[in-house]
Design goal:
The complex is a heterotrimer of chains A (282), B (279) and C (386). By secondary structure, chain A is mainly alpha-helical. Chain A has a single domain, classed as Orthogonal Bundle (MetI-like fold). Helix content of chain A is 76%, strand content 1%. Chain A has a two-stranded antiparallel sheet with strand order 1-2. In chain A, a hairpin with a 5-residue loop joins strand 1 and strand 2. Chain A is globular and about 75 Å long. Chain B has one domain: MetI-like fold (Orthogonal Bundle), CATH 1.10.3720. Chain B is 76% helix and 0% strand. Chain B has 13 helices and no strands. By secondary structure, chain C is an alpha+beta fold. Chain C has 2 domains: 222 residues, 3-Layer(aba) Sandwich (Rossmann fold), CATH 3.40.50.300; 117 residues, RNA polymerase II/Efflux pump adaptor protein, barrel-sandwich hybrid domain (OB fold (Dihydrolipoamide Acetyltransferase, E2P), Beta Barrel). In chain C, the strands form 4 sheets. Chain C has a 6-stranded mixed beta sheet, sandwiched between helices. In chain C, strands 11, 12, 13, 14, 20 and 21 form a 6-stranded antiparallel beta sheet that branches. In chain C, strands 15-19-16-17-18 form a 5-stranded antiparallel beta sheet, with no helix packed on it. The longest helix of chain C is centred in the middle third of the chain and has 18 residues. The relative contact order of chain C is 0.12. The chains are: A mainly alpha (282), B mainly alpha (279), C alpha+beta (386). Chains in contact: A-B, A-C, B-C. At the A-B interface, helix 1, helix 3, helix 4, helix 5 and helix 6 of A face helix 1, helix 2, helix 4, helix 5 and helix 6 of B.
Amino acid sequence: MFSRTYRTAITVPPLVWVAVFLLVPYLLMFCYSFWSVSESGTIAHSWNLDNYHELLTKPVYWQTLLRSMWIAARVMFFSMLLGYPLAYFLSFHAGGRKDLYYQLVIIPLWVSYLVRAYAWKTILGTDGVLNTLLQYVHLTSHPLDFLLYSPFAVVLTLTHIYTPFTFLPIYASLEHIPHNLVEASHDLGATPAQTFWRVIFPLSIPGVLAGATFAFVLSLGDFLAPLLLGGPSGIMISNIVVSLFGAAYNWPLGAAISLCMLALVLGLIFFSERLEKKWSFS
Amino acid sequence: MKRALHQGPRWLTAHALAVFAFLYLPIAILILYSFNGQGVGGFPPSDLTLNWYRILFSDAAIWDSVLNSLLVAATAMLIALLFGIPAALALDRAQFPGKAAFRRLVLLPLILPGIITGLSLLMLFRVAEVKLSLVTIVLGHGTALISVATTEVFAGLQKLNRAQEEASLDLGATYWQTFWRITVPNLKLSIIGAALLIFTLSMDEIAVSFFLIGRDNTLPLEIWGRLRRGITPEINAISTIIFMFSLIAIVFWYRLRTRAEVTPEIGAELVETAGGSGF
Amino acid sequence: MATKSEPAVATSSHPGAASLVSIRSVAKHFGKNIVLRDISLEIAEGEFLTILGESGSGKTTLLRILAGFEHSTSGEVWMQGERLDTEPPYRRRVNTVFQHYALFPHMTVEQNVGYGLAIAKRPAAEIQSRVAEALAKVKMSACAKSKPSKISGGQQQRIALARALVNRPRLLLLDEPLSALDANLRRQMQVELKALQREVGITFIFVTHDQDEAMVMSDRIALLRSGELEQVASPREIYNRPATSYTAQFIGHTNLLHAEVRQGTATCSALKWPTSLPDGAALFSLRPECIRPATAASATGSPGNAATVRFRAKLRDQAFHGATELLRVESDGGLILTIRTASRDLPNSEAPLEFEISAADAIPVRASNSNSSSSSHSGSQSEGGV
């Protein structure tokens, strides 16, 4: 029903914009990763695999990558642990308060990422709220210093930030389950627990996968929380990239690491998408 | 039996309460300590004061950055809507080679860590010899947030009855008239929702801005710069103010959708599309 | 002009009226899927034409081509000497009543009806009076300020009608507009719609899958089957003289008789009747109401009358339908026939009853290659309609 002019008018402008500001930059990043820095500090446009060779041979890079993945995996696990039962509670047991609770989960999403990370810093610091509270009630005599500047602080903060993100797709998939399926399961003699494991959980897997991918991917690429709360032991892969683009001034190597990260992320998304398709029956 | 089914196990309720406490405790502490005379940290809080707000209001650098952020957010919102709405229309009703790739590309900044979007744009501006400034930040935010406009509007389009547009054409309205009189009014909520979301996300954005910043700071970068130097209750004060504005935005949105009766949850489509099979 | 060969009688049977729309060899393919093939049809000025067909027959696609929402793969559509199918929908003096009405939810009833006039930039006073007039015509003046979501389905239907008619189109297209209404309201609307069409004098093309609806309302019925026109004729003609076995079965009930013709006599099981068809196999449609219980008068009367055929059959089933009832009988030769008679008590016995038909009521039909309708060899009865 739409004329050719109409279709051209809606297609061409976004296509051009996206090509210039998304496609070209990604391609540039790809090119950069094969270039190098000359002695004089300029970018030498000579194509080679040196950057990738360095990535593979220097342990600091892949060790940091592994640590980042470990942190991201923990964030994913904990936000799932918090998010899934919450979504289940809202979807099946919240009754008339469902909408209110839902809004309550959403509201923290509107609070600035930075502000939330900052709030944790004020809580976990040596003179922070938690330490002074513990001393006030005489649980400890001197401040606990492992709280801040540690992977623990990073995992805690990122879990706080991404729990609502994991909650949303899980909640959506639970809400899409027709209520009569649950009734049918009970009717056929299944207990609530059996109904959960045999009917509800399998049907919520697409939401779980989406939420898990979110938490993992976004934590993996984070560099602000580690800078703010991580300390030396909480350094993540993106922090290395940031320093390569900043003080260390090695853009090509930074681009190569970013590209590896991009490949990892896209691979994960692709994989999770395949699994989601397998588990969606509608 | 029925009652038990409805209420669910007690631990589930306790768990939900604990999660809400976890989500809100830091925010509550943040707000509380913005009124604490002793500064941040230290228990129990004492000497309730508005002093930090007084200092904040006379801090010119902060307010400059707030103004910059407002400017950036407003312009980025316009760009994202200007290209995101047609992109959603194109995905809904045009066929062209590479459509699937285009869809993925548009939505990519939604799920990619901000650092990748920020760095790739930094390289573009370097190669094109564009000086970093608020303009580059606007371009970065606008591009990254097209994804938000596209998802929200696309979700709205899926619910729009195409027969309505046909009826308009049938009654003599051109495509352009139909777009403004039928399509846009029907997508009104999606567009307002997208605009609110884009504005808020841009106000809060730091990962992309981090790499594209010139001389003028946005608010998050200003805060970031101060955090590197140490904790100050001024930041609690400005955070509290931002939080209040966010709450107003939520209430505004909530009233809008209550009036329109049945509409999508803000951002829900976004997460579903980005995380779900729509991506 | 490409006229369709038999059985589609493509020329207007509306005597004295000029042709308004001319559909010429229109075909529509969606990829490999052929939805319409070689449709040619003339639609007369002021006519009420129904496009009747099962779901998937292509009737809605044909309507959308006329409205301009689809482009035909080949063929042309003309309206009063001008090409119609190359115009965008908004330049056609054609309006549509959509299946689910497609009222604009963000506008009041009044704004909905005035939409086309506002777009055409008519003066405000004219819009106001014409909208009021249109609303009065469909008896909806009271709801002018309501939002569409606040009124009932039947009322929405009237508004959709007013919104289209207020523009005084040359041609009004109606896409199953009554399908969402309940049975009583639907019958009432059929009558009103027909009266309204007479009153405004605008050509209506009405799409439906309901053959009763088509019979009640139309000047002509165009029966569409798998993208082809099966027959175009007035309701009476299409019922009384179906051209094909599909038409005979789709419109009303019928008995299909697979007969063998030899020297002017058709034979099907124990039934024999005179015919003018040449020798060979032939198919006849015999409506259930054309089979009568033999009366005493006809039994004793002129037995030599070749046009009346009598036979004996045993009662197998009886279904009461109020004023009439349907009998299923088995004739001596094992032929199963459906008979419609006035309701009355029949002796419930194994004793054979005597029936008669007029030879003229056995209508020769062409066999449709059966995909949706199957006919058993001993004659069968279709379940077309309610």
